[in-house]
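Q: I'm writing up a methods section and want to include an example of the input and output format. Could you take the sequence below and give the corresponding predicted structure tokens, formatted cleanly so I can copy it straight into the document?
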Amino acid sequence: MDELNTRNFIEAFVQEDLSEGNRCYGMKVHTRFPPEPNGYLHIGHCKALTIDFSTAEHFGGLCNLRFDDTNPAKEDNEYVEAIQQDIHWLGFDWGDRLYYGSDYFEKTYEYAIELIKKGLAYVCELTPEQFREYRGDTTRPAVSPWRDRPVAENLELFERMRNGEFEEGRYTLRAKIDLASGNFNMRDPVLYRIRYIEHHRQGTKWCIYPMYDFAHPIQDALEGITHSLCSLEYEAHRPLYDWVVNNLSIPGIKPRQIEFARLGINYTVMSKRKLRKLVEDGLVSGWDDPRMPTLCGLRRRGYTARSIRAFCERIGVSKVDSTVDWALLESCLRDDLNESAQRVMAVLHPVKLTVTNYPEGQSETLTVENNPLRPEDGTREVSFSRHLWIEEEDFMEVPAPKYKRLHPGYEVRLKGAYLVTCTGCVKDENGNVTEILCEYDPQSRGGDPADGRKVKGATIHWVDADNCADAEVRMYDYLFADPEPDGPDKNFLDCLNPDSLKVLTGCKVEAALRDAPMPENGKDSKGYQFMRQGYFVLDNRDAAPGHLVFNRAVALKDSFRK
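A: Here is the clean output for your methods example:
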């Protein structure tokens, strides 16, 4: 085959295997992504699935989707459907190669019998606690009183285990490998255990279930997987993986396991168990809460598939575990939305501004660009009248030093409109400013003043009070206040950020947003840059026509050092 440029050590290994005389010469690269359907995919899984699918893509190969449903305790079809939606959202596809680990239960059982007949597996009566006592240590080998049980007796007991004749924990099937191995995964690991629990696809057909370390290499081999790519935690399990495929009569190529470092990101947790705890305890609104690191949560918040794939590309593939700054993920989103998002004006903390010398009852239409970086996105019309909304922070009656926004006697520019000079304000009985008074320069529409004077004031955004829409805006921050909520000697629940969500009601947005397209679940939402505020999307669960709910996807300021 033609030489390909390799982008990381995994692709270098694959390229080596494909070269003439090596194990995969003349073959098509075949990988798989094997999620367990016991929760929603999160950003950590995204690195793994990107590596699995993109490695196959790079070499013109195939990637299977296989649900690892060999542990039925918390598996559910809800997760099966959500995982497929997330993978498609990211732009990957498995074609007609969708499999379930449970599809192989009968075949896996037959291979277990093969090991028993070869004298390479036995039925053990030790409980997990007892086996830890018998397991030995680095200076003392393990022992098992059941290791030399006769083959015929093992076959009989294993069949009775399958028939449901014993209670949970009474027996396990163990591999007979090496009780003196320095790798404790090779000290007669469990291959099967008894579990009386209903399976989401198999129902109650089975009461014995294979362990991942036994089932996974069998499934890889049966599917013709050439390269089994997995996270670094399985490096110590690789000898067991190889032992399984080498001692069974599975036809075809023996898959090669290659490990890479898992993705760690600060200010979050990646454990499904801990994420489930947040959901079940009502600490977040669900798996798709925009503060969650789940892909459905990130999508709801406003993250795009392109930004997440760019993030995975930028962090690369390594053999050393490390923690990535969440700001890098935000930076990737900001780069994407800066190119694609429509610019609009929205006032989140509104206070009324009255242009006193503008005729009452009159309005005009201003033409503004949708995105100055993309002229092809065209323009839109924004109405202007005597009554406007501006941000509270854009006015100070007594200005602070170097304050360049509205204050009495000071001139600023209204974005895309006119220069205005503040003439005063109106207060209520408590001294709160309820209205700001200004006069405009009719000769300054959309440009510099006719007399050539220099305006030192800032440009501030606004919304026409006579023609605008109301909106709820949700401002999100890190879910955890501690950058290492999963750190040693920490309870991650104690690290929650009490200010991770602020809901702003009574916000004012351009009238055109009344007709903004509602988001579709499973697809990118249309992004908007609220001028001077950040990037926002309509919430894909709570927004509806006539009820605008915007989520802030990311702030404008980029805190990541590139």
